Automatic annotation (TrEMBL):
Record-annotated F-box domain positions: 10-50
Signal sequence extent: none
Superkingdom, natural source: Eukaryota
InterPro entries reported for this sequence: F-box-assoc_dom_typ1, F-box-assoc_interact_dom, F-box-like_dom_sf, F-box_dom, Gal_Oxase/kelch_b-propeller, SCF_F-box_component
Entries under PROSITE patterns matching the protein: FBOX
SUPFAM superfamilies linked to this entry: F-box domain (SSF81383), Galactose oxidase, central domain (SSF50965)
A Pfam family the protein falls into: F-box
Taxonomic placement: Eukaryota, Viridiplantae, Streptophyta, Embryophyta, Tracheophyta
Protein name: F-box domain-containing protein
Xref: CDD domains: F-box_AtFBW1-like
Length: 377
């Protein structure tokens, strides 16, 4: 399509700011208005600037559907998203960062997809190496190098070999093998993708977190290590995607005692702990990123009739103060009111069945824009 020249009526700085407030899908259409608009909308500066004012939504997925929900809109409706591949069976994991969905299929294929621009890129998990079997470990953004990275974790039968780690760089379009994690950092039986949190402007979407067991005391014996079950603790494993370095943080004792049950999660973009007891009470704690040891208890959910606390996964706080929860076993969303302690269904029009819920934003970030060190815009 031939791009038109348009007469500049609105000052350029005002026009730039107006365009920043428009939805990503509208901006995709407006690229054809004229050359000036096209140059603004496709510039790297504009695309990065748009991330500062994004509006979070939800993506609800199942083995055969992807749905986008503006959960804070006046009329909540599920919009169907068209997956770019014909074969979408075998969905295993899904993550989101800066408008890119990272979807892992059971055959080891990874799809980086921006539903707003309909651009996508396919990546293959590293091949199994010896005794190690690779799984998807997480997805995030290295703001220092303007690079999106995928983490793969390799687990073997021999515990002393530890965990292998490989990182895919979208900028370099290749995998890089990292030093093995030592054996005394133990993932759960079925490793879950790392939790990605927003962070501040400088560290946005840069750190992944996993819940692990960390063995503090052990004795080397020929061919193996010995430790007592009380010598290992629950800990966070953190990966800084900019430095590509791991570290471990112990969990707060007052929250994560050995007697308590808890899950690490993302609550409204913040690192969170969802703690619950056998009596049916549940607490939501969030981490203050500026202070390493600062945790704040936001909400306590009392026992609910016929519903166990482990059946819920907290998502975020709504504008009216209610807490949006995912009722996992029934694949439903519900709202908890902290004032009257009531639980009610969250009605969404045209909703299809789903089994996964993640936070997502609509942006213009392209999975194909930066490859081999060049900006292809």
């Amino acid at each position: 399509m031939t791009q038109k020249r348009c007469k500049q009526v609105i000052p350029s700085d005002v026009l730039f700011d107006i365009l920043l407030f428009l939805p990503a899908k509208s901006l995709v259409r407006f690229k054809t208005v004229c050359k000036v608009w096209y140059s603004y909308i496709t510039s790297s500066y504009f695309i990065k600037k748009q991330l500062d004012g994004y509006h979070q939504k939800l993506v609800l997925s199942s083995s055969d559907s992807f749905q986008l929900v503006d959960y804070k809109g006046s009329q909540v409706e599920a919009m169907q998203l068209d997956f770019p591949l014909e074969d979408k069976d075998g969905l295993k994991d899904i993550s989101s960062c800066n408008g890119l969905l990272c979807i892992t299929l059971k055959d080891g294929k990874i799809v980086l997809w921006n539903p707003s621009t309909r651009e996508f890129k396919q990546v293959q998990l590293p091949r199994d190496r010896g005794d190690f079997r690779y799984t998807f470990g997480g997805f995030g953004y290295d703001n220092s190098h303007d690079d999106y990275k995928i983490v793969a974790l390799g687990h073997g039968r021999q515990i002393l070999l530890g965990t292998t780690v490989e990182i895919f760089s979208l900028r370099n379009n290749s995998w890089k093998q990292m030093p093995n994690l030592p054996w005394y950092i133990m993932f759960l039986a079925t490793p879950q993708p790392g939790i990605l949190v927003r962070g501040d402007h400088q560290s946005r979407n840069r750190t992944l977190y996993w819940q692990v067991d960390y063995v503090q005391k052990y004795e080397p014996i020929i061919g193996r290590y010995s430790y007592h079950k009380d010598d290992h603790i629950k800990a966070f494993l953190c990966l800084d995607l900019m430095k590509e370095e791991f570290c471990t943080l112990t969990m707060p004792d007052d929250i994560c005692s050995k007697a308590s049950k808890f899950e690490l999660g993302n609550f409204g973009g913040c690192l969170s702990i969802y703690k619950y007891s056998d009596e049916g009470y549940a607490d939501i704690w969030v981490h203050e990123l500026k202070e390493v040891k600062k945790w704040t208890e936001l909400i306590t959910i009392p026992p609910m009739k016929d519903l166990l606390p482990e059946m819920f996964a907290p998502i975020c706080i709504m504008n009216n103060g209610e807490v949006l929860l995912n009722l996992k076993e029934e694949n439903k969303l519900c709202l908890f009111n902290p004032e009257d302690k009531a639980l009610r269904a969250f009605e969404i029009q045209t909703l299809l069945p789903f089994d996964r819920v993640i936070m997502h934003t609509e942006t213009l970030v392209s999975p194909n824009a930066i490859i081999d060190g060049e900006d292809r815009r």
